[in-house]
């Protein structure tokens, strides 16, 4: 009997085996998911596109981001940023940067659409990341502007202003205006979180909600300034400054006129 009791398993042995099995199955699932995502990133690009994209990357981006995109002291790693980040940064002219600064400035685009897509295809092979948005989520006719306003005010207005006019941040940084920005670049900005912006993945803001936000912003672009001069839609700060300046000029002018009359 004593020999049999010594051969019995410890009560925690079964629990340890169950935990080990869960960790193993979870790891295998993660590897499979990552592999599938990586395949999905490269399915829309041909081998020639990726090859040409690598050449463009080495010639224009590797100085800051490294020959293999793993980053340098001058620039972050691009492994896992996905095609969407490249399409946004290069497609808006923010990359390549002209000079180091608080953030990359929007400027004229330096590459053709084909070249941008080739570089995006190459960077997508470095690691799984956000892909280019699907056309169905860029169709503002299918979006809900009212719901987009709710999502925007809850997540974006504190930096970009309720009217999407942008605003100042700290240490020379700023949130840019969202007026006259393409639907694709607005979606990609939410996906990738460029500059100082947080990432709003599909768990935070669903693709349908992103489309609603885009619809709201495009509605703002088309809305007339029913109150007259919009003052950049910057709210009470600009309006108060305008009233204060004009009022002060009127008071000084009236004072000068009274003084001249008395003389």
From TrEMBL:
<dbReference type="InterPro" id="IPR050597">
    <property type="entry name" value="Cytochrome_c_Oxidase_Subunit"/>
</dbReference>
<dbReference type="GO" id="GO:0005886">
    <property type="term" value="C:plasma membrane"/>
</dbReference>
<keyword id="KW-0479">Metal-binding</keyword>
<feature type="binding site" description="axial binding residue">
    <location>
        <position position="160"/>
    </location>
    <ligand>
        <name>heme c 2</name>
    </ligand>
</feature>
<keyword id="KW-1133">Transmembrane helix</keyword>
<feature type="signal peptide">
    <location>
        <begin position="1"/>
        <end position="30"/>
    </location>
</feature>
<dbReference type="GO" id="GO:0005506">
    <property type="term" value="F:iron ion binding"/>
</dbReference>
<feature type="binding site" description="covalent">
    <location>
        <position position="64"/>
    </location>
    <ligand>
        <name>heme c 1</name>
    </ligand>
</feature>
<keyword id="KW-0472">Membrane</keyword>
<dbReference type="InterPro" id="IPR009152">
    <property type="entry name" value="bc1_cytC-su"/>
</dbReference>
<feature type="transmembrane region" description="Helical">
    <location>
        <begin position="241"/>
        <end position="259"/>
    </location>
</feature>
<keyword id="KW-0456">Lyase</keyword>
<keyword id="KW-0679">Respiratory chain</keyword>
<feature type="binding site" description="covalent">
    <location>
        <position position="61"/>
    </location>
    <ligand>
        <name>heme c 1</name>
    </ligand>
</feature>
<dbReference type="GO" id="GO:0016829">
    <property type="term" value="F:lyase activity"/>
</dbReference>
<protein>
    <recommendedName>
        <fullName>Cytochrome bc1 complex cytochrome c subunit</fullName>
        <ecNumber>7.1.1.8</ecNumber>
    </recommendedName>
</protein>
<feature type="binding site" description="covalent">
    <location>
        <position position="159"/>
    </location>
    <ligand>
        <name>heme c 2</name>
    </ligand>
</feature>
<keyword id="KW-0249">Electron transport</keyword>
<keyword id="KW-0408">Iron</keyword>
<feature type="binding site" description="axial binding residue">
    <location>
        <position position="65"/>
    </location>
    <ligand>
        <name>heme c 1</name>
    </ligand>
</feature>
<dbReference type="InterPro" id="IPR009056">
    <property type="entry name" value="Cyt_c-like_dom"/>
</dbReference>
<keyword id="KW-0813">Transport</keyword>
<keyword id="KW-0732">Signal</keyword>
<keyword id="KW-0349">Heme</keyword>
<keyword id="KW-1003">Cell membrane</keyword>
<dbReference type="InterPro" id="IPR036909">
    <property type="entry name" value="Cyt_c-like_dom_sf"/>
</dbReference>
<keyword id="KW-0677">Repeat</keyword>
<keyword id="KW-1278">Translocase</keyword>
<keyword id="KW-0812">Transmembrane</keyword>
<dbReference type="GO" id="GO:0008121">
    <property type="term" value="F:quinol-cytochrome-c reductase activity"/>
</dbReference>
<feature type="domain" description="Cytochrome c">
    <location>
        <begin position="48"/>
        <end position="221"/>
    </location>
</feature>
<feature type="binding site" description="covalent">
    <location>
        <position position="156"/>
    </location>
    <ligand>
        <name>heme c 2</name>
    </ligand>
</feature>
<dbReference type="Pfam" id="PF13442">
    <property type="entry name" value="Cytochrome_CBB3"/>
</dbReference>
<comment type="subunit">
    <text>The cytochrome bc1 complex is composed of a cytochrome b (QcrB), the Rieske iron-sulfur protein (QcrA) and a diheme cytochrome c (QcrC) subunit.</text>
</comment>
<dbReference type="GO" id="GO:0020037">
    <property type="term" value="F:heme binding"/>
</dbReference>
